[in-house]
Amino acid sequence: QYARQRVANGTAGAVAAACRAVGARAVHVLVLNGDVPLARSETLQALMRAHVDSAAPVTVLVSGKGPVESPGYIFRDPHGKVEDIIHAQDLPEGLHLTPEINTGVYCFDAAWLWAHIGKVAPSKNGELYLTSLIGIAHSEGRPAATMHVADAVEALGVDTRARLAEAEAAMRDRIRRRWLEAGVTLTDPASTYIDADARIGQDTVIRPNTHILGTTRIGENCDIGPGTLLSNAQIGDRCRVLATVIEDSTLESDVRVGPYSHLRGQTHIERGVDLGNFVEIKKSRLGVGTRSHHFSYLGDATIGKDVNIGAGTITCNYDGVNKMPTIIADGAFIGCDTMLVAPVKVGRKAKTGAGAVVNRDVAPNTLVVGVPARPIVKAAAKPARAVRASKRVAKRRKAKAKE
Most buried among 24, 127, 173, 224, by the most CB within 10 A? Predict the structure, then answer.
């Protein structure tokens, strides 16, 4: 539920606008600025517990001097009680800054808050400061309580692009520390970017200039980078990914990719696949143990296990209107510089010669060559016949020699 502050008249005016929305339903009210994305839920819960224990009308979250542009400094009376919060620009002459900074996060007794919010007087600039309630509480003999936050960056307000960059840097550092403590090696933390929703398995090594984005999941004992981008990728255990971009795709365990490859569009790579440099794969599935070591484009393809994809192989999957499928069965051998003009199927243990343009289905155990590619002989049968013919020739020559 939202309450609208119709007149931008300060923080006290904003809280007053929420009075009707919150009303008498709450016993305590937590107030914080809307531009503090680094505030931890654990810190807010601790503040609320401290407030309940203190029985004070308000508890203020404070920090030591740090990277926060403060919405005020804490001033205490001779007895150590919080007397007031004063903004730096409003400091009386001769009054020096204190080592305690107001973070702008408060927990109020709800009844006291609603009874006193109307007593806030305008400041010199006409705004109604919520911090004025701290002085009111002290004047009534019920001074505010305080709780110190360990990390001042939690209260960093993001109201400029420079502050946004500072907050993002702090969040990245927080995330990196979490993974270092969880058993992940970051060889250069400063150049490693990991999104909050990413997950990384133990004993994985992340090398410099690597970006792990979105909901990426990385298994254990992997070696990722340098120069790698993973976005919403699923990476199994013991994978090696070098200088590669993987988007919205899955690698099963024991897969090697890179350098300079690109996997995208729900590609699925089964275990033990080896993909070398400059291999692009889109919306395809590669079976167990298949290899594509150099310079290939595989799009809208279903490729079986133990297939060899030669350098320069391209699936010509777009006919100008629709994307067409290519199917390559188990054990096939695709020669260098083969063009597979989809829709097309290559049968089990079939072979294509170097430079073949395959625009018809290839039967199992068949070798096709040429432009357009046409069958030469069954690939599995050729070696056996050649051996038998060779033996017959040798036998005839031997017989003639005896004569």
Answer: 224
